[in-house]
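Entry 14: structure prediction run for Tyrosine recombinase XerC. Input pasted below.
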Amino acid sequence: MSAADQKIKDFLEYIFRSQQGSEHTIDAYRRDLIQLLNAMNKRGIEDFQDLTRPVLMSALSEIRQNGKVPLKNSSMSRKLCTYRSFYRYLMEHHLAESSPFDGIRAYPSQRKIPEFFFEEELSEFLGGFDETLPAQKRDKLLFTLMYACGLRVSEAAGLVWADISFSERIIRILGKGKKERIVPFPVWLRDDLEDYSIGKKASDPVFVSRLGKALSSRAIQQNMQKHADAIGLKMTVHPHMLRHSFATHLLDHGADIRTVQELLGHSSLSTTQIYTHVSTARLMKAYDESFPMAKKDWNSAS
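Run finished. Output tokens:
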């Protein structure tokens, strides 16, 4: 029996002795923990004390999708309760120093899907476009940019080419309350944007319909769901999921919360910016080091 299997066995015996759960509950705990351990093992993690947050998020994605249809939020929330209880036990018995589940919110009880994509889901979503078709080439660039820069759908719909600086590798965004923010984009995405900009004027919308008019927020929403359905992604999607994914993945990979707040342009930042000023150079460094899509090998992997 492995060390991880022994920890599961000891935990279940502890729950039984302390009369904290029925036989049905203990069986559910056992299934949940074995499922987590199997997902960990696939990712090269053999013991619970070595589980990191990025690996955990990948494992949870697999657990949720492991079946004909994704697990409901209520089922995933129950599993999270199991895992949190297990890690409390490990920490109390000095078998783990910390819990990778700290800070992970329960799945919303009234929503069928979470507000963000796991990285595997996002890779599947963005990798499913046929770029030989003009509309799909446009949509892949649109959704990639929305994720890469944490754009609101209205911000993406309102982009004109003058907002994008290829030399500086930044986009100037006019967000809520007409507040301007500057967001970097990955080095490899610059070539795709420059190629797409050929023949366009600075005042032209970046993303247009077949009639040459700027795509509306509604059209972007419809195109996103249409693509998810076409590639068999079994979930309801909406553009704001890309913005939430941007923030979630930055934090998962080590970016500090204040940098993320500035990249998102949250209104509350105006009161904290005086005390926690982040220079453009630091923003760029944090983005390149912490955001998975900014890695040079991300594009080839997708």
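Notes: Confidence is low (pLDDT under 50) at residues 110-114, 269-279. Will compare against the previous run tomorrow.
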